[in-house]
Structure to design on (278 residues):
C-alpha cells in the first residue's frame, strides 16, 4: 500500500506541471528563448548531483532524448503564442496516443480500446481545430504546433522508458535537461534574441522551477513508485488545471465547440490508457 505522502507528491507534481502554460503566457520573449533558458536553469540545478553518474551508453540515449525534449518545448511554447492555453495544453498532452501508435509500429499490439480512444480523440482534435480556425488561422497553426510538440514528447517518453531502467532519476534528469539546453541555445542564438526583457526573468525562473524541476521531475520519480497507467491518468489533470488558471488569470474561456473537443480528447486518452494494453 502506497503512503499518503507519495500520493501527495504525485498530486503536487501534476499541479506544478499545470502552471507551465499560464506562466509561459506571462512572458513576451521568443519561444526559443524561453525554452532555452527553461532547460538551462533546470539543468544547472541537477548537474552538480548527476554529472558524476553519467555513462557512455546512457549519455548517447539521453542526448537523443534531450533533442526530442528540446523540440517538444520549442513547438509547444510557440503554440502558446498563437492559440489558447486550454487548446495548446490539451493537444500537447495527446502524447499517450502517439506513444501507443509508435509502439504499434515497433511490433506491440494495442488493444481495441486503444483504437477506440484514438478515434474519439481524433474527433476531439478536429473540433478543437475547427473552433480555433473560427477565431483565426494563427490559432489553428498553434494547434498544429502543439500536436508536433506531443509527437516529440512521445519519442522522449519512449526513450526515457528504456533509459530509466539503467540510470537513476537525478543523473537522467541532469543529462536530458542539459542536452535539451545544448540543442535549444544554438537555435535561440540564430533565430531569436537570447536575452529576454527584464520583465520576463521572474516568469522564466518560475517556469524552470515549478513546471520543470518540481513538476516534470516529480512525474519521472512517480514512474518508479506508481504503475505507468496511474501516472498517465493523473497527468490528464494538467490540461484541466491549466485551463482553470488561464480562465482565472487571463479570462480565456473556450468556445463551446472547443470545449466539446477538449472533453472528447481527454475522454479518448483516458479510454485508451488501459493497464497492460499499450
Amino acid at each position: 500500500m502506497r503512503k499518503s505522502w507519495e500520493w501527495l507528491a504525485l498530486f503536487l507534481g501534476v499541479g506544478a506541471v499545470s502552471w507551465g502554460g499560464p506562466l509561459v503566457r506571462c512572458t513576451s520573449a521568443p519561444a526559443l528563448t524561453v525554452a532555452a533558458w527553461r532547460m538551462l536553469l533546470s539543468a544547472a540545478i541537477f548537474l552538480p548531483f548527476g554529472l558524476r553518474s553519467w555513462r557512455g551508453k546512457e549519455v548517447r540515449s539521453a542526448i537523443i532524448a534531450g533533442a526530442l525534449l528540446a523540440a517538444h518545448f520549442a513547438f509547444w511554447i510557440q503554440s502558446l503564442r498563437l492559440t489558447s492555453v486550454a487548446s495548446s495544453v490539451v493537444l500537447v498532452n495527446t502524447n499517450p496516443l502517439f506513444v501507443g501508435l509508435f509502439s504499434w509500429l515497433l511490433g506491440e499490439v494495442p488493444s481495441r480500446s486503444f483504437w477506440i480512444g484514438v478515434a474519439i480523440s481524433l474527433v476531439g482534435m478536429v473540433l478543437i481545430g475547427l473552433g480555433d480556425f473560427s477565431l483565426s488561422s494563427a490559432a489553428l497553426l498553434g494547434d498544429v504546433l502543439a500536436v508536433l510538440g506531443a509527437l516529440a514528447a512521445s519519442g522522449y517518453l519512449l526513450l526515457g522508458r528504456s533509459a530509466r531502467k539503467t540510470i537513476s532519476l537525478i543523473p537522467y534528469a541532469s543529462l536530458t535537461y542539459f542536452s535539451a539546453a545544448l540543442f535549444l541555445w544554438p537555435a535561440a542564438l540564430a533565430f531569436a534574441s537570447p536575452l529576454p526583457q527584464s520583465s520576463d526573468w521572474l516568469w522564466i525562473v518560475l517556469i524552470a522551477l515549478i513546471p520543470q524541476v518540481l513538476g516534470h521531475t516529480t512525474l519521472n520519480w512517480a514512474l518508479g513508485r506508481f504503475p505507468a497507467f496511474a501516472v498517465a491518468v493523473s497527468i490528464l489533470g494538467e490540461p484541466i488545471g491549466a485551463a482553470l488558471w488561464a480562465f482565472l488569470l487571463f479570462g480565456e474561456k473556450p468556445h463551446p465547440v472547443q470545449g466539446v473537443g477538449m472533453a472528447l480528447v481527454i475522454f479518448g486518452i483516458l479510454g485508451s490508457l488501459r493497464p497492460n494494453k499499450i
Summary: The chain has a mean pLDDT of 86.
